[in-house]
Amino acid sequence: MELLPNCYTDLCVDGKWFHYDHGDNEVFMLAGACPVTFELASQPATEAELEQHLQEITSQIK
After folding, report:
1. Which end of the chain offers a freer environment for a tag, N or C, measured as fewer CB atoms within 10 Å?
2. pLDDT tens, 34-57?
3. What radius of gyration, in Å, describes the C-alpha atoms of the chain?
4. Cα–Cα distance for residue pair 62/45, rounded to 1 Å
């Protein structure tokens, strides 16, 4: 699915929830009152690309 501007996606990958504001280069891992921010290598154009970025992030924080 294409990521439309001025929208957001919340996605669960490997049991961790992430919030992504479309058109941004940062993603937030929802971790209670203190969300953790990660920089994406590139702006994803589709939900599949976003999930791929998030899988890379979760593999590094396990």
Report:
1. C
2. 889 999 999 999 999 999 999 999
3. 11
4. 26
